[in-house]
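Notes, p. 3: input format for complexes.
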Amino acid sequence: MTDRLRIAMAQLNPKVGALRANLELARGALDDAVAARTDLLMLSELFLTGYFPEDLLFKPQFITDAIAAAHDLAAATRDTGVTLVLPTVWYEHGALRNAVVVAENGEIVATRLKRELPNDDVFYERRYFIPGPLPEPVTVKGVPIGIPICEDIWHPWVCAHLVRKGAEILLCPNGSPYWRNKQHIRKDLVRARLAEDGVPMLYLNQVGGQDELVFDGASFAMEPDGRLVAQGKSFETDFIVSDWALTEDGWRCVEGRVEERTSIDETPWRACVLGLRDYVHKSGFRQVVLGLSGGIDSAVVAAMAVDAFGPDNVHAIMLPYRYTSQASRTDAEDCAERLGIRYDVVSIGEPVDAALHELTPIFGNRPLDIAEENIQSRMRGLVLMAVSNKLGSMLLTTGNKSEMAVGYATIYGDMNGGFNPLKDLLKMQVYHLARWRNANKPDGCLGPSGEIIPISIIDKAPSAELRPDQTDQDSLPPYPVLDAVLEAMVEQELSVAEIVAKGHDRALVKHIEKLVNIAEYKRRQSAPGVKLTPKAFGIGRKYPITNGYRDESGS
Ligand SMILES: Nc1ncnc2c1ncn2[C@@H]1O[C@H](COP(=O)(O)OP(=O)(O)OC[C@H]2O[C@@H]([n+]3cccc(C(=O)O)c3)[C@H](O)[C@@H]2O)[C@@H](O)[C@H]1O
Ligand SMILES: Nc1ncnc2c1ncn2[C@@H]1O[C@H](COP(=O)(O)OP(=O)(O)OP(=O)(O)O)[C@@H](O)[C@H]1O
Ligand SMILES: NC(=O)CC[C@H](N)C(=O)O
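Output follows (555 residues plus adenosine-5'-triphosphate):
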């Protein structure tokens, strides 16, 4: 049995379903592991399919191809001296499994199955997989190693069983998506496991955007006393090598790299930028377009897009109508200039007036209302989609979580677009991030530093400018109040009575509840966006569209 181990964690960005491309990424990691003379190379959960392949797992050919790719990769370990820990889909006892195969010198020497299949929130693993039994350790280079897979460590019994059966080190491959505070939650979890079990753990996560989820990487290694001995980068790929020696107290890290962690304000920005970049790139687009109104939401989306793609790949269009103020035009142009992006002005005056004219026989002499207002938004949506079609850029949509909650957006108008980086940010959080980005340039972001969002945009009252002198507050409660109620109602799922007990007016809470319920049909038809909180609209939140429930608590 060896008393030294060099272990590499490949924190990579696989694309779901891209079996051949993911296999090439894995081969590259194997080459790096050989060059770094590592004993063990670990890949993240379901690496070759990417996490999570959803109903691709119902296609028998996909499973056949994924298992063939796993065999190819196992064969590539021949004469490398590297033991590969490869998480993959697998068949065992006639059932589909979320598994790990361990390969050495070209052969598969062991397989282990995931025992705890998460089935809540954004996870549906029991829809596809059958759980394995409590896993036994695997002996690698004479060392008994435990390989719990992701959710397995969220319950005490899997690690406890592995250690009782002799595991001296735990290697945990993950597909663990980011949301607020998740990095701390994971560390506290692992700390608790290690305090119970007394062995070190290497925790590997994948990185990258996958539809609405962002995987933040931030892989780490921890000793039984809770000390962090290795820490990979957040929101970037990384290759984390650590050296371990057998001491009187068990395996301890003798050399590991600890990266500085991202700050609490930086993480949502980085998550939005990475989620946006990967959604657009993995969908085959290189450029994006958006309507730049001179308001805060489109300014922040433009800044995120510049951070994701660089100024040359972002196209902003101002689409004025007669209610568009001179201040909005000046602010939009100023913002585009600060960001260094292409800026065009396309008036919607004539097409809107032409539509209104043609509709006169149908509208008759009914009073002006939301119908005329929405034509402006829909004309902007039409123009922007035309530019997307012609120039091949993806249209970004800009509705924040507060607006998406209460339906304050025009369906088939400003809701047009392929992706929405603000979807899980309440309005006040959008302001906060704008100020934060003006003062900070995060790592891995391609935009300029300094005040890239003009202060006048941050300071002015939000307005849709669909009629003269309109402000959002004509239709909605002040955003600080609306956001506080939404946080309680949507994110914490509190009852009306509980929200009123926090000091909010009952009539207002009931009004917001009604708006939130009614707007479900809009959200179902809305673009995907980055999930940042445990309760994002979209993946993981399943509410009926036709819904007769009304909360009468405390009445
Ligand atoms: N349950 C349901 N299932 C399916 N469809 C349903 C539906 N209920 C209504 N509808 C359809 O939806 C239509 C109503 O929705 P919609 O046409 O969007 O119109 P609506 O929601 O009435 O108005 C849009 C609101 O968003 C505001 N807005 C617009 C643009 C930008 C901003 C901003 O500041 O960001 C704000 C605008 O001031 C207005 O208050 C109905 O006419 C009907 O066709
Ligand atoms: N005059 C305009 N020119 C270009 N795009 C516009 C214009 N007005 C609205 N849009 C687009 O429609 C979206 C919704 O805009 P609107 O101004 O109605 O509401 P908002 O939520 O206050 O957004 P913002 O803060 O960006 O203004 C904007 O983010 C922008 O993408
Ligand atoms: N892939 C998984 O098993 C993930 C589940 C786990 N609760 C997490 O978010 O990390």
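The two ends are 70 Å apart (CA to CA).
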